[in-house]
Structure formats: C-alpha cells, structure tokens
Amino acid sequence: MTIATVPTEPITGQKPGTSGLRKKTQVFMQRHYLENFVQAIFDAIGGADGKTFVVGGDGRYFNDRAVQVILRMAAANGAAKVLVGQGGILSTPAASHLIRLNETDGGIILSASHNPGGPDEDFGIKFNMPNGGPAPESVTSAMYDAASSMTEYRVYESHDIDLSAIGTHAVGDMTVEVLDPVADYADLMETLFDFDAIRAMIAGGFRVRMDSMCAVTGPYGVEILENRLGAPRGTVVNRQPLPDFGGMHPDPNPVWAKMLMDEMWGADAPDFGAASDGDGDRNMIVGPEVYVSPSDSLAVIAANAHLAKGYTDGLKGVARSMPTSGAVDRVAAAKGLDCFETPTGWKFFGNLMDAGRVSLCGEESFGTGSDHVREKDGLWAVLMWLNILAKRGEGVGAVMASHFAEYGRNYYSRHDYEALENAKAEGLLSALTARFADLPGMEVEGMTIASADIFKYEDPVDGSVSDNQGWRIVFEDGSRIVMRLSGTGTTGATLRVYLERYVAGPDGLDEEPQAALGPIIRAARSLSDMETHIGRTEPDVIT
Ligand code: VG1
Ligand code: CO
C-alpha cells in the first residue's frame, strides 16, 4: 500500500450551505469531486495528523463508496484512528454522540438528510467539530476557501475495508474500528428518559407507530421501541434502511409522511405516531387526528421536560431559530428561562449549549434536541414525548389542548415554493427589501405593520455576526411573515414563507391553521408581489 498524491483542480460550487455540502449524487460521483472536498475539510481543520474521527452516514446511495474514500484519505492525511458505524451507517445524532463519548477530533457525516436519495437524487457531506456539532461558519468558509484553491489531495491506494462486521482493521498506520451504530446511542437515551414508565404505558395497551421512512432510524427505532421498551414487533414501519429510501421522500411532515398521517386519521388509529427523516435528526409527532406542529412541540417539551429524568433540574435556557414560532418564548417567559433567537441551522445552537446557556433547542423544520448531543435528534424527541405522555397519563390531544389553554396558541405554517429560477427568487426578495423602509405603519388585510427588517445575528458567546438570515415583517399584534431561501436544496431556489399569528384564547384556539392564518397568507403574497416575481401564489409544500 502506498500514499498517492493526486493532482487536482478546484471545482466550483463546493460551498457548504445550511448543513454541509449538498449536491446531486451524480455531482459527487464526478472525478475528484468528493476527494477535493474531503481534502478541503482536513485542510480547513489544520490537518488530520494524529487525529481521531467518527465517520458514518444515513446509508443512502453512494454512502458505502464515500466511506471507503474517506477512510483512505484520512489514513493518507495521517489520522490515527477512525470510528465507523457498521456498514458505514450512523444517524446524525448518533454520530454526534460518538464524537463526544470518545472525545474525538470531530467526525464526517454523509447525508443529504430529508432530501431523497439515489443515483439521480441527492448526496451530502458535512464535518462536525469535537463538541459533536456542525462546523460553524468560520470553519465552513475555511473549507470553501481550501476547496477553491485545491491543487492536490492525498489518498491511500488500498483495498476496501470490510465494514460489514464489528471489528478492527488497519489502513496503513491508521486504525479503523467498526462499531455497533445503535448501542451507545440507545444507552444514552436510557439515561435521559424514564424507560420504566414508558414500558408500563406500552404494556398497558398504549399503541405506538413509528415510521422510519426506509431511512436510518429503522434499526434505532427497533432497538429502542421494540427491544428495550417492549412495543410489539412491527411498531416501527419502513424499518429497513434502503439506498433510495424505497423511493420515499424521507422528510417527516404531513405531506411526505402521508402513510402515517392516513393511519393516524383512520379508524383504529394508534395512540401516538412519529416519523423521522433520512439521517434521523428530524421528527414529526402526531396523535389520533392531532398534528403537533414542530414549533408547538418545542413549546410543549419546554413546559414538560422536567418530567424526564435527564431534565428534572429544569432547563438552563431555550433557543429557537428565528422563523420558528414564538410558542416556546411564552413558556420561557412563564418559567423565567432565557430564550435565544438564532439563524436557521443547528450550527448556531452549538455555542449556546457549550456555554451552558441553553439545554433545549428547536426549529420549525421538525428539529428538536437538547444538549445531550450537538445535533437535533428525532428519536430523542419521540422518547421525550412518550415520557411526557406516560408521566402525565394523557394523550397527545389532551396535552395540546391544555397547553394552548395555558399559553395561548401561535398558529403557524410554512409554505415552500420549490424549484424556482434563482434570479426570480432573488428578484422577489430584493424588491421586498426595497419596500422595507415604507412598510412600517402600512395597513394590510386589516393589520398594521410594525417593522420590517433582515435578521442579523450576533452570537452572544463569541460575538460572530451572521447577516442576511431572513426577511421579516412583523405586525402590531405580533403576527409575522418571514421569508428566506433554502440553503439545503440542490435544484434552483426554494422560497420558504413562514407565517405566524398568536391567539391568546380562551376563544379561537381550535381553528384550522390555514384558515386562522388567512390574512397573513394573503398579506405575504401581496406584499412580496409574488405573482409578478415567481408567476404563482400556490406553494408546493405546506407544513
Ligand atoms: C432546512 C431547514 C433548517 C434545517 C436544515 C437542515 O434548511 O429549514 O431548519 O436546519 O434544513 O436540516 P434550509 O436552508 O433548506 O431552510 V436536515 O434534517 O436537512 O440536517
Ligand atoms: Co436531517
């Protein structure tokens, strides 16, 4: 075996977005594409010499090939050891946990998360820091700089490592340890939640359905829900991870997890339903004919986390991404907790968690998690909900009704306009920006605009500034419109329009969200002149 130094040239567009570098799989399979970016990762973190990393991915098409390339390149760059999940598989939260548990120098996660997988779909790669969290912007821009001036990469010329069984191998001087992707993660969950209470609830006839959407959480769900908590075999459906996710779109929302929604709205619905995404960091929670919006789920968890044994001392503080509804803010205010508002993307929560200022974070995009790892964590949220229901002895619907009665309800929805021409989407936002100065005081749909600005975040821990993090229009009654462009898509531009309206109650707490948000939706369309800019006003996906 020898180390080859391969001459290469920079490849345009290797710029990480909201969560790593995501492109069409075919793009990643082009000559040098993956290698250039992996070398850029190592260069950006000051080299791999003597370091230990975690490597794994969500099992999508090309995961197996990419892991082999990364192992050979890590060895050629002098890494001492790589911990890799059996079969090259690790969920994103499990990878984050392994980085922390083994005090490694970081990890490389292969995933395009909620994007479909397959030769004609999407692939992705990202680096997580020694704290287990996604690289911050300073590091991702160093990766982009390194990729933009790449002239050569180093790779071992060797055979593939057998990752099919647990064991230890060598690539040159580097050790490869193949480990069980599930065990350590499942053990961590047992320290956080009251498994006895959940087990008793399930033994008492409480029926759970978990849809893993043919993605990475299948084996995790089976081990935790069926093996450790005693739910019947078959509780986890779509449990076999497949390279193309069985053709499913592994995004746990009412549109893409339709099979679960149909069951939860059907006769004989289970008591609790949940779904997770491609890499296992997202979750959707549903009860019989009750959909829990992710922003509300975050608020309910904030209000009830003390019922779980890992959180009995209460939360240190909470954080949400700016477009996420203010439901959690109301719980924080009632409990006297600090509440932070960050840009979209989990990487912005890391500093707050490391500094001990927050222990619960969430995003409207079906992401919830705590400082047990540094990623959002789908199964964690499922177990937190089961723990809360077991301790309260109530169903999902009853918990939601009493939450709204106590705190009021932040009606919320996100409308996505997908595959737009980049120039048109950008045109809409720049025209909107040009109107911002004139908007305060203006009346639309019977509401008065209080402010209009572009969200800029100054990290309270390290002072770093992130600009252009979302266009927002706030009305005098606190209702909001937020718009931003997706940073995870691979085809054209996706415009996300986030809509929110607060109702204090006691009346008007159980309206249909799209109806309750009617005036806000109309205002968003007219203020942005949507029809003119993108030629349509009906979204592709409503969550
Ligand atoms: C989306 C979500 C964001 C989430 C990100 C990664 O980003 O809006 O909240 O953190 O995906 O989630 P964007 O830029 O497309 O809006 V995942 O599960 O893809 O790691
Ligand atoms: Co994900």
UniProtKB/TrEMBL annotation:
Pfam family, one: PGM1_C_vert_fung
Keywords: Isomerase, Magnesium, Metal-binding, Phosphoprotein
EC number(s) from the headed UniProt entry: 5.4.2.2
Example of a GO MF term: phosphoglucomutase activity
Occurrences of domain Alpha-D-phosphohexomutase alpha/beta/alpha (ranges): 14-152, 184-286, 295-407
InterPro entries noted in UniProt: A-D-PHexomutase_a/b/a-I (IPR005844), A-D-PHexomutase_a/b/a-I/II/III (IPR016055), A-D-PHexomutase_a/b/a-II (IPR005845), A-D-PHexomutase_a/b/a-III (IPR005846), A-D-PHexomutase_C_sf (IPR036900), A-D-PHexomutase_CS (IPR016066), Alpha-D-phosphohexomutase_SF (IPR005841), PGM (IPR045244)
Cofactor(s) listed: Mg(2+)
EC top class named in words: isomerase
Catalytic reaction equation(s): alpha-D-glucose 1-phosphate = alpha-D-glucose 6-phosphate
Top-level lineage group: Bacteria
Region described as Disordered: spans on this chain: 1-20
Family: Belongs to the phosphohexose mutase family.
Protein name from the UniProt record: phosphoglucomutase (alpha-D-glucose-1,6-bisphosphate-dependent)
Origin species: Psychromarinibacter halotolerans
